[in-house]
Amino acid sequence: MYKYILRRLLMLIPVMLGVTFIVFSIMYMTPGDPAQMMLGESAPEAAVQALREEMGLNDPFLVQYGRFVKNAAMGQFGRSYITKREVFSEILSRFPATLQLAVSGVLVAVIIGIPVGIISATKQYSLFDSVSMIAALLGVSMPNFWQGLMLILLFSVNLQMLPSGGYGSFEHFILPALTLGTSSAAIITRMTRSSMLEVIRQDYIRTARAKGVAENTVINKHALKNALIPIITVVGLQFGYLLGGAVLTETVFSWPGIGRLLVEAIRQKDTPMVQATVVFIAVTFSIVNLGVDILYSFVDPRIKSQYK
Question: Which domain holds residue 96?
């Protein structure tokens, strides 16, 4: 197990190099001059060129990228062009808000998705199955930002029950958590249903029923446990995606997370902030995937034996 974890962590190195090179290249080719944005449109050309030289923006592309990789390897991502603060400290200050939203969204998704998927599988082709699959299809197809705007229109504008944005109280969590949770629930529902359908057709399930085992025990103890691997995969991927910052949802609800921070940094061409945020998201997503792989071994002992 330890060798497997170490190997996965070492695989992060080429992944991070690839991610940083792509992001650095995109930001390098994006129109706009960070020095001009920092000094203002009315700044003298000499002052702009002096600042560009001081920031190293006049160096060739590979020189700038090599400097960034070297500093990043030492944990130094630089300072924001806009706020002048250390970018990593600003990311860490925003991450708790994103973590809280991600946990809330995943809880909503799991509470809705897994029970609905199980019932749909056990009552295949029933009215409940048809309605739930149509709802899941709509949930997968519906853009998050549109769903968020519709929830704001209904609960904030028309009913005036919940705040339309912001961060702080429990009421502020409800609409963004529902927006993220229902879309993720649709994916989890479909995966749970298909996984359960595959398992409940196995011979050992028929044998358990033939022995007179109660149907609830057959479903919950035998079928669900063996159907968990793909369900855990989907839940883990959704959680990793939300931890990376649900960019559109955080923007719609004015949520002070890293997704909104990334949007603001891209808009202002704050290159150090964009690069550090993307690296942080990539590392977070990879760690969540590693945690999901390790969780497999506790669900299925056969997987644990492969690590030895």
Answer: 91-306
* Residue 149 lies inside a defined structural domain of this protein: yes
Mapped onto helix, strand or coil, the DSSP state of residue 86 is strand
User: How confident is the model over 120-167, as pLDDT tens digits?
Assistant: 998 888 999 899 989 888 888 888 888 888 999 999 988 888 888 888
82 within some domain: no
**For 33-75, what is each residue's pLDDT tens digit?**
777 777 777 778 888 888 888 878 888 888 888 888 888 878 7
Token pair for 161: 């029950």
CA-closest candidate to residue 269, choices 67, 54, 23 = 23
Are residues 184 and 113 in contact, defined by beta-carbon separation less than 8 angstroms?
yes
- Are 126 and 199 spatial neighbours (Cβ–Cβ below 8 Å)? no
Structural contact between residues 215 and 136, judged by C-beta atoms closer than 8 angstroms:
no
- Distance (Å, whole) CA 260 – CA 152: 18
Residues across the chain: 308
With beta carbons less than 8 A apart as the criterion, state whether 115 and 304 touch: no
CATH number for the domain that contains residue 193? 1.10.3720.10
Residue 120 forms part of a structural domain: yes
CA distance 119 to 200: 12
When divided into structural domains, the chain yields a total of: 1
